[in-house]
Write a structure and sequence with these properties.
This protein has helices spanning 14-26, 36-56, 69-84, 99-110, 129-135, 158-168, 227-230, 238-253, 255-274, 301-310, 330-334, 339-343, 356-373, and strands spanning 2-3, 63-66, 90-94, 115-119, 140-144, 172-176, 193-197, 208-212, 279-281, 291-296, 313-314, 345-349. The protein is of the alpha/beta class. Helix 4 links the parallel strand 3 (90-94) and strand 4 (115-119). The protein is globular. It binds pyridoxal-5'-phosphate. The site of pyridoxal-5'-phosphate (PLP) has 13 residues, from helix 3.
Length: 375
């Protein structure tokens, strides 16, 4: 099988696997226990937090380990909204966020009486500063905008958007950086909170991270013990959290060379799809080099995915979290690309592990499928 679905998840790095196995076996103590077995696990976790903070150029007290990026998004948005509702009950996000942001916002609106504004995006899938400026209100307390869109690779101008929020409002800025970590430089100095996930960068599944600027008030969604500065209770998953350090180091150490290589793959794909009969590119040309979204207007997403799968290629149609429903990309719809493109799209996502030969085979096969299935 040729895997071209790296935005959904990645295979585990061998070094992370080896390290994890060792830590799981040898450091099984509860990191909150006072005896030496617990203290050893705690020390490893602390070291990892320090290394992660140093890699990201932030303070270790600003790093919170979680079970996944979906949890981090919930923790940041609900945690901040609940702790600051007395300042205002208006939040702003975009129409194209990951479901963990959109569903969180929906719940805040429907269950907890907050008011939410969903910013539109341009035809390139990018948020415009003018739309943000028009949406902010006196009672806006938080703006959440992703850095790189997981379906199209569109890159938002986070520095500019966050600067506007900080100079013109009293709101804080949260950024979902899941598809950017290890690929693009993160705008952590510009934002107040940021979300990351290990399994998108060859780390463990069930392992997320929230960066939260020091002293920014949020409340715990999992109330229990002293873990994560009392902001996320429950026995720490110390072995998994310990592996964050290695995961992030491996990703950042090789970020530049991986990026340069993947850019050549992306150019190859972009060029091929620009000239391919029956296909239209949905991703902006200046988007992430790791993601390319295309539609074949004569073949629906599901049929295309199944045909590719049958020939040994793994790609996605939309965000994997929504993949069990009827294929319809709310992201492409929000970009104004029309119903047909939204229901006939596939996402190809790349890695430094992808070879040129794999791309060549993929292009060959997708052309064959087009000729076989077109109506
Ligand atoms: C942009 C974005 N945010 C959040 C998530 C959720 O990540 P996790 O699987 O760690 O919950 C994903 C995963 O697809 C994503 O692409």
């Amino acid at each position: 099988m040729i895997y071209l679905d790296y935005a959904a998840t990645t295979p585990l790095h061998e070094e992370v696997l080896e390290g994890y196995y060792k830590v799981l076996k040898q450091y099984y103590g509860n990191s909150d226990s006072l005896h030496e077995i617990g203290r050893k696990a705690d020390r490893l976790m602390k070291q990892s937090r320090m290394q992660v903070a140093s890699s990201l150029c932030v303070k270790e007290t600003e790093i919170f380990f979680t079970s996944c990026a979906s949890e981090s998004n919930n923790m940041a948005i609900k945690g901040y909204a609940f702790a600051n509702a007395h300042k205002g009950k208006h939040l702003i996000t975009t129409a194209v966020e990951h479901s963990s942001v959109l569903e969180t916002m929906k719940q805040l609106e429907e269950v907890f009486g907050f008011s939410i504004t969903y910013l539109p995006v341009s035809e390139d899938g990018v948020v415009r500063l003018s739309d943000l400026a028009a949406a902010v209100r006196e009672d806006t307390i938080l703006v959440s905008c992703m850095y790189i869109n997981n379906e199209t690779g569109a890159i938002n101008p986070i520095k500019e958007l966050a600067a506007y929020v900080h100079t013109h409002t009293k709101a804080v800025f949260h950024c979902d950086c899941v598809q950017a970590l290890g690929k693009y430089e993160l705008p952590l100095q510009d934002v107040d909170m940021a979300t990351m996930s290990a399994h998108k960068i060859y780390g463990l599944k069930g392992c997320g991270l929230l960066y939260k600027r020091e002293h920014l008030p949020i409340i715990a969604l999992i109330s229990a013990g002293q873990q994560e500065q009392h902001l996320r209770g429950g026995t720490s998953n110390a072995p998994a959290y310990t592996m964050w350090a290695k995961t992030i180091r491996l990703a950042l150490d090789h970020q530049r060379e991986h990026f340069a290589y993947v850019k050549t793959l992306h150019e190859m794909l972009y060029e091929a799809f620009s000239n391919m009969e029956g296909f239209v590119i949905n991703s902006p040309q200046n988007g992430s080099v790791y993601i390319l979204n295309v539609s074949c207007e004569q073949i629906g997403s599901e049929i295309m995915l199944n045909a590719l799968n049958a020939r040994g290629f793994a790609v996605s149609a939309q965000s994997t979290c929504a993949s069990k429903g009827k294929p319809h990309s709310y992201v492409l719809a929000a970009m104004g690309l029309g119903e047909l493109r939204a229901t006939h799209a596939i996402r190809i996502s790349l890695s430094h592990l992808t070879t040129i030969a794999e791309i060549e085979q993929f292009l060959q096969v997708i052309k064959e499928i087009y000729h076989e299935y077109r109506t």
